[in-house]
Automatic annotation (TrEMBL):
Residues 383-407 are annotated as: Disordered. The keyword Glycosyltransferase does not apply. Keywords: DNA integration, DNA recombination, DNA-binding. Residues 171-387 form the Tyr recombinase domain. This is Tyrosine-type recombinase/integrase. It is found in: Cytoplasm. Residues 396-407 have a biased composition (Basic and acidic residues).
Length: 407
């Protein structure tokens, strides 16, 4: 492939780089005898780095995305191998991230997300926000550091970029206040239920918001979860406890307390979908049942779109109530599935749930082997979570709204 043929960008798995640009003679290459990699070109070296993250899809996808952008930019736009990039080149790349140009080469049409094999695929869906720009540089710095440690590169040009002083971690702001969360619930409850399709949509919306909020789950955990992951065991008081087993970040398993309230919602959702009220331990039905093809788990993007649809619908519903609700509607338009995870954690903390309980429920810190024997601590965590952290679907309903009290 000639340099002229590199006018269009391609995913790295199908990219063929000419010898003059593949880095075999890069000016920043380390001595071959000192390299701990079998890679002899930049693309293979990047693939070797990425292989360290192959078992964690989200991390792998994010790291590949940033490495791919830099590699393609160096080869296609700058006409240099990755292993020849200098400090000055990376300053230009920082500016490029703010607004990738020419857009026809780098940005997908209409900001759409296309499969990597689709000819409409591009490395960017639009300019990166400041937080995404910083994250890109952090990931690339880690890649360069690894390549230096492996002996593939002599030095890390990324390390010369001026870094802002590290700030203390800000408080979580991407969550819904209690009053705004109540608006979301009210919106879901007023959804029409006249037809089978409307009833199915209402059931999914109610189940999704309940599951994300009460369990504080990540979108990948919901997308990949199965009904058979619900189980019950006897607590210290001899009564049944319900739990949900989930596979979290870094393939770490955890169990999250399940309240009677969630079990009731589970029964209702399953019954609406023609299933037995409670799942069996080996059941492979997805946690969120597709409208078509029941045994196929929804993708993370499908779950994301479903939650965004609820928030968008709630925002339109609020705007229809008048200008006084515009700010609330704007906040909901920004919200995503991950906001529900933050909302769950924030509301638990505000409700007095012990921070160690929240930590274990959300899976922020893995438990050590000793915790396998701490059943009394599990009992306390279960009781505290299900007693203090509630969905309260009927909280906004007045006494006059109760069935049988119609005027």
């Amino acid at each position: 492939m000639s340099n002229a043929q590199l006018a269009t960008v391609q995913p790295v798995e199908t990219l063929a780089v000419p010898e003059s640009l593949d880095g075999r003679d890069g000016t920043n290459r380390g001595a071959i005898e000192n390299s701990q990699l079998s890679a002899r070109n930049d693309l293979d070296a990047v693939r070797a780095w990425l292989s360290n993250y192959a078992d964690t899809k989200t991390t792998f996808d994010n790291y590949r995305k940033e490495a791919e952008r830099l590699l393609l930019w160096a080869v296609v736009q700058l006409g240099k191998p990755l292993s020849s990039l200098t400090h000055e080149d990376l300053l230009v790349f920082k500016t490029f991230l703010v607004d990738p140009q020419p857009a026809s080469r780098w940005v997908s049409a209409n900001g759409g997300k296309y499969a990597r094999g689709d000819e409409r695929w591009r490395p960017f869906n639009g300019p990166l926000l400041p937080a995404s720009q910083r994250q890109a540089l952090i990931i690339l710095n880690a890649m360069f550091t690894w390549l230096v440690n492996a002996g593939y590169l002599r030095g890390n040009p990324m390390a010369l970029l001026r870094q802002r002083a590290k700030r203390s971690a800000p408080r979580v702001t991407r969550y819904l206040s209690t009053s705004l969360w109540d608006e979301v619930k009210l919106f879901v409850e007023q959804l029409p239920r006249d037809t089978d399709a409307q009833r199915a949509y209402y059931a999914r919306c109610r189940w999704l918001t309940t599951l994300f909020y009460l369990q504080g789950m990540r979108i990948s955990e919901v997308a990949g979860g199965q009904m058979g992951s619900f189980f019950r065991r006897l607590g210290a008081d001899g009564k049944d406890q319900w739990w949900l087993e989930t596979l979290g970040k870094g393939d770490k398993e955890r169990i999250v307390p399940v309240s009677v309230e969630l079990v009731q919602e589970l029964r209702s959702y399953r019954t609406q979908n023609g299933l037995a009220a409670l799942p069996t331990r080996s059941e492979e039905t997805p946690l969120v049942i597709p409208f078509k093809g029941r045994n196929r788990c929804l993708s993370r993007s499908a779950i994301h779109d479903a939650i965004k649809g609820i928030f968008s619908g709630a925002a339109s519903w609020l705007r229809a109530r008048g200008p006084a609700f515009a700010d609330r509607a704007d906040e909901l338009e920004r919200a995503s599935a991950h906001w529900l995870r933050h909302t769950a954690g924030s509301h638990q903390a505000d409700g007095g749930v012990d921070l160690r309980t929240i930590r274990d429920n959300l899976g922020h810190v893995s438990l050590n082997t000793t915790s396998l024997y701490l059943h009394t601590e599990d009992d306390a965590r279960h009781k505290e979570t299900v007693n203090r952290h509630r969905m309260n679907w009927d909280a906004g309903r007045t006494k006059d709204d109760e069935p049988g009290n119609a005027p």
